[in-house]
Amino acid sequence: MKRESKKLLDLRKGYTIDEVEDLADGRLIKMSVPVQTQHRSRFKPTIIAAMVGVGCGAIAGVSLALAAQAATMVPDVSKMGPEMTPESVQLVLEVAEEAQVSENPMEAELIESALVEQGYFREDVPLSFEIQDALHTACDANGIPYHVALGLIETESDFNPDALSTSGCYGLAQLNPEYFPSGLSPTENITTGMEFLAYQLDRYDGDMEAALTAYNAGHDTGARGYATAVLEASKKWS
Length: 238
Fold this sequence. Notes:
The protein is an all-alpha fold and 238 residues long. It has helices spanning 3-13, 17-24, 46-54, 56-70, 86-101, 107-117, 129-142, 146-157, 186-203, 208-217, 225-235. It is elongated, with a radius of gyration of 23 Å.
C-alpha cells in the first residue's frame, strides 16, 4: 500500500502507519463501526477490545445493519478503470464506508445496545456505563474478577460515588486520603482501588480473602468478616 494511502487511512480510521501495515497483511482486526474516530461517541477506545472479546456477534449484526443502509452509496469499483490497484480500491471502499457510517445518528445507541446485549454493560449494576467501562478496564489491567470488584464497591460505598465515611474515606472504593490522593473522580477512584487490591493480592500470593482483609485493614489481620461480606455481595454479580 502506498504511503499516501496509509496516511489517508490513518486520518480516516484512526490507525497508525504500523497498524495499517498490519491491516494490509491481514493481521489487524478491523471493526465496521469506527467508534475510535467519532467525536460523537460516548465510549473510549478500550470498548473496542470488549467488542472483539465479548460482543462479536452483536457487533457484527450492528455492522450489517449499517452496511445495508450504506449499500446504495458504495461506489461501483468495477467501473474505476485499470489504473486502480487493489490497495486503491480497498481505500475507496473504506472511505465510502466511513463517510456513510459516520452520518448515522444512531451509531452510539447501536453500540451501547450491542454491549448491553453481550453483558459488557449491565443495567442492573447501579453504575453509569462510563464507570462500568472504567471498572472493566481496571479489573482487566489488575487481574481482579469483575464480580469481586462490584462486591467490594457495594460493600464499601453501596455504589454511591459521593460516599464519605466518618474517617474521611471517600468515593466508590472508599479511599483513605491519608494514603491516596484526595478529590479523585469516580473512575479514578475505582481504578486506584483496583490497583490497591491487586497490590494486596500480590502481597498475599493470590489469597483473595487475605487481600480483601488487607484492603480494609492495611494488612491481613486474620479476621475474615470484611472479606466474607465482599465475597457474599459479589455472588449476585457473578
